[in-house]
Amino acid sequence: MYKILVADDHPLFRDAIVNIIGIKFPGSTTYEAEDIDSTLAFVKENGELDLILLDLNMPGMSCLNGLLDLRSECPDIPIVIVSAEQEKQKILQTISYGAVGFIPKSSSKEVIAEAIESVIQGNVYLPSDIMLSLIHI
Prior knowledge:
This protein has 137 residues and is of the alpha/beta class. The chain is built from six helices and five strands. The chain has helices at residues 11-24, 36-45, 65-73, 88-96, 109-120, 128-135, and strands at residues 3-7, 29-33, 51-54, 79-83, 101-104. The chain has a five-stranded parallel beta sheet with strand order 2-1-3-4-5, with helices on both faces. Helix 1 packs across helix 5 and helix 2 (36-45) runs parallel beside helix 3.
């Protein structure tokens, strides 16, 4: 099935995401990292990932530099931001920096599972309110 790295500094949130992945994608393998340094080290050693779920606000990220570092280290692995960030401009900036999706941490389990599935199928995922605001531009 899939190999997914969950990079977040909150153990309870990592557990929740791993649980969602286990239910939605049985047989998938999940890995965990708690800061950007361990995330980068894992990717260097294990490049065969299908997806990285990345928290924006974990140790070592320094704004979006962690995303840029990760993107340059593994340009072919889709990265989805999973964050409590709510500022529209910052969310859109993550996409312009190479993320293929943004999942708010406040999302329901069902929405998180659907978002992950959508990205794995090759789509870009953004919260519905962000998508609606882009349509009305």
